[in-house]
Input
Amino acid sequence: MNIDITKLRSGIEDYITINETYTFSKKELKNSGILELNNIKINGEITKNSIDDYNINIIVEGIMVLPCSVTLKPVNYDFNINIEGNLIEMLSEFNENYENNQKTIDIFPIIWENILMEIPIRIVSDDISDVKTRGEGWELITEDKNPVNPNLAKLKDLL
Output
């Protein structure tokens, strides 16, 4: 998500408004634990202060689809993130190099890192109340009360 900062650098504009909607691809979500991340709204602005540093103030909001911790069914999780601070310092934390003569700044690493930090450790589906567990919550009881071992199923026909 490259933002053109040439007008901000030259002093023509005081701030750059960001108003984007972004959908993450399956490749971007790989190994993140997120099943879907569609239509994420990114709103805010980038400003330049008196010492030629850039400040960012954006709000990222949307719905991430995560697997339920018990049943692995997809669960929607609403999030709203406020990202505020020095843009150059944030980019240096992600090992993104910024040179003072650049015309664009990629804010995607900042947004992605903040979304990853919003993933809850555990999420449980609302319809989990009809699922029963046994013991101390470590075994899930399915509807099939007496499961038959498929290797022994043919023996049943002999009797």
Observations:
- The longest helix spans residues 108-117.
- The chain has five helices and eight strands.
